[in-house]
Design brief:
The chain is mainly beta. Helices cover about 10% and strands about 55% of the residues. The longest helix is centred in the first third of the chain and has 19 residues.
Length: about 150
């Protein structure tokens, strides 16, 4: 009889612990586009760690840009994105990108990128941004200008 009560007590405690575990945040998706030096790169359906207006990160491994012109680009970090709905902005403290032209890869970092909301949807545009060289050979310019960038969360 004591064993049965003991097992029932353990089951009740375990059940209440399972119910007390917080739910994980829902993931979302983001589409984007950047324009640098006459070339444009865009992607769709990259995975985010949460949904707006919650602070989230963009999973760089799911950003698969398709680029026009002579450049290839890749995101090399998981940028954190913070929403300010009152101001109609979204910001990312650091965005790291590799750009490849003629088999030469240069790494750049944009700091404090801010985008303005367009209309009432979760579409934002920003730029121009200065990207500072963070790695690469002597043929890499010390800075590049990101003419424009857009993010659309869904």
């Amino acid at each position: 009889m004591k064993a049965t009560r003991f097992l029932v007590g353990i089951a009740a405690v375990a059940g209440s612990m399972l119910l007390a575990v917080p739910a994980f945040a829902a993931t979302g998706q983001v589409d984007g586009n950047i324009t640098v030096g006459g070339s444009s790169c865009s992607w769709t359906n990259a995975t985010t760690s949460d949904v707006p207006p919650n602070t989230l990160t963009i999973d760089h491994t799911t950003v698969q840009p398709s680029c026009s012109g002579s450049i290839a680009a890749s995101l090399t970090n998981d940028p954190t994105v913070t929403f300010d709905d009152a101001a109609g902005t979204v910001s990312a403290p650091e965005v790291d990108v590799n750009g490849t032209v003629l088999s030469i890869t240069c790494s750049y970092k944009v700091t404090n990128a801010s985008y303005a909301r367009q209309g009432t949807a979760r579409a934002y545009t920003g730029g121009p941004f200065t990207a500072n060289l963070s790695g690469g050979g002597a043929l890499c310019p010390s800075t590049e200008t990101v003419n424009s960038a857009s993010l659309t969360f869904h």
